[in-house]
TrEMBL record:
GO terms for molecular function: pyridoxal phosphate binding; transaminase activity. This is dTDP-4-amino-4,6-dideoxygalactose transaminase. It holds the Pfam family DegT_DnrJ_EryC1. Belongs to the DegT/DnrJ/EryC1 family. Gene3D superfamilies: Aspartate Aminotransferase, domain 1 (3.90.1150.10), Type I PLP-dependent aspartate aminotransferase-like (Major domain) (3.40.640.10). GO terms for biological process: polysaccharide biosynthetic process.
Amino acid sequence: EGSLDFDKRQFEAIIEENKKNNKILCILVTHLFGCPADFYGIKKIVGSKIPIVEDAAQAMGEKIENEKLGTLGDVGFFSLGRGKALSAMEGGVIVTDRNDLGGILSDLLKKIEVPSVLDRLKLAVKTILTTVLQHPVLFCLPKALPFLKLGETLYEEDFSIRQMSSFQKSLVGNWQKRLKGHQKTRKKNIIFWRENFPQIITQICAGQKKASLIRLPLLARSAEERDKVCLKSEAVGCGIMPTYPAPINEISQISEEFAGQYFPNAQQMAKCLMTIPVHEYVSERDRRRILKLIKT
């Protein structure tokens, strides 16, 4: 079948092969949308010789077995970008309990440039526009503001690295209390969807009852059905969006790395995946409108 898609037997075979050639730099475990990956199952297969990097970009504050996601591997990172569990519009957080990696990160931080006045001004404008446009009714407008790149999946090989500005620090002030507040709201909306969506709708991560996902992922029965729902949503401002438009082997910038490889499950998921907004700007009226659209 030639695919690694959720197939632990193939994963075990690759880890076993790596014992001969030692080509694997690290294993990246991703908690997509905030839905916990099977970290401990993966760790059992990988062992202790290969570093594990935890992509908790969308999972700040979430737990498995009472352990915080992002703190389980050798290195973990969280995103503070727009639409994440806690946002400073840009940037993120890297954590590690390894002294060697911690030292390297500390040295790197000392060399990073401070954002300019123009950088801070651009970020302030971007923050205001993004905050306003988060409301489902207004989410069709970003197409008229392409520089915001809302709803796009980008693969950028070259990007600047800057220290967090004082403006960004103010955006995440009192972050623990604010994060808990965001989680409470998202859980409330997710519970509503799960109790009211028709059974024909496939809900990803449905078994994670306590997860406060950043958006609720659903699988349509076909690409045509997904596109139809998203077009209707755009017309009436419901905020339902397609997500991750292609599997990794079809990302043009890195497709050569996957020459001859095909990932059918990932391709099918990319065609059928859509997400529902769950943030605090989603009102009771919005929930009813989205539910009506999905049911019809």
